[in-house]
């Protein structure tokens, strides 16, 4: 028996992060006030192993086949939506969620999708609350001094020619006496970092600046970030730092590896690709990155290319793993000293047509089941010219969005 799913136009909405329903917030993908936010869970699924992307695709196709879809809006992101959060390594658990209610907004148009035969759910606006948390910060899996030692180990291996680049990550812990309110945290991240994608899937929450892939009809886009410098807050000084970043041989080398890995991964699926000759500097609230938008036109073939196939080809990119991939992944396993879980894995949404947006789970934290403890993650690209003290400083800058958001709840 099929399940009815309905999509209707809504009136004018405020920012998505302030919208509420009678169901609990479960998922989000918001940038600059637009995107998708989900409430409740219709179904969820865990996948793992070397076939996790194919298994996720099959499960989603099976679920779509059981829907009786009444979509009066049409367009990318309307109708039934699957939110995905894949693990960095294949043997860890990946999460799939189909919300009961999805509210979307794009270019001034808003819509609501709900599952079941009931009338359109009521929605309300939630005022941003100031939650006062007493947070105690702790070291993560590896101390700062030991992490710097591991960066030094990686640099030595790179200089010996064993690999070109590796991304080493670290974590810290946040403990509170009260439960962390996820919707307040999402509102805070959206307000403070509007140019990032604010995501939530199964208690993994963050504000990522990196889009792994967007597929809209036949156009595929990937935003590559690699090469970072911390802002000072002084506009003139930051402009000078941006110019320094754009000319930094160390950062340009790191960026080139990341762009090359994405372009090579997309090439088999595209009849044409466009890779700009030089990156631009992306200004965020606390850091600046070298950034390149790689675009392509998907091949017009008898076998349609779906998001899951493209995600599998792109992950892990050099931006979160290294170059060559296998050597970098082995070094991460040997010296990083922590379990990444879904950090640095693909996270985002896919609709029933196969369109979607999937980023890389960066600038994020994993909340535990009590909602009183969170692991925060940050990673740095290590190349021959890397300095351990500078890399530690960069990791601290990358931890700042989540630290600040938690501290100001």
Describe the structure.
The chain has eight helices and 25 strands. The chain is an alpha+beta fold. It has a single domain, classed as Anthranilate synthase (4-Layer Sandwich), CATH 3.60.120. A hairpin with a 5-residue loop joins strand 24 and strand 25 (373-382). It is globular and about 65 Å long.
Topology:
Layout: E1 3-10, E2 19-20, E3 25-31, E4 34-39, E5 43-47, H1 52-65, E6 67-71, E7 81-85, E8 94-98, E9 101-106, E10 109-115, E11 124-125, E12 135-139, H2 144-159, E13 165-176, H3 182-192, E14 197-201, E15 204-208, E16 211-216, E17 219-230, H4 235-247, H5 249-266, E18 270-274, E19 280-283, E20 287-298, H6 307-314, E21 322-323, H7 325-335, E22 346-351, E23 356-360, E24 364-367, E25 373-382, H8 388-407
Parallel strand pairs: 1-6
Antiparallel strand pairs: 1-10, 2-11, 3-4, 3-14, 4-9, 5-8, 7-8, 7-22, 9-10, 12-13, 13-21, 13-25, 14-15, 15-24, 16-17, 16-23, 17-20, 18-20, 19-20, 22-23, 24-25
Helix pairs in contact: 1-6, 2-8, 3-8
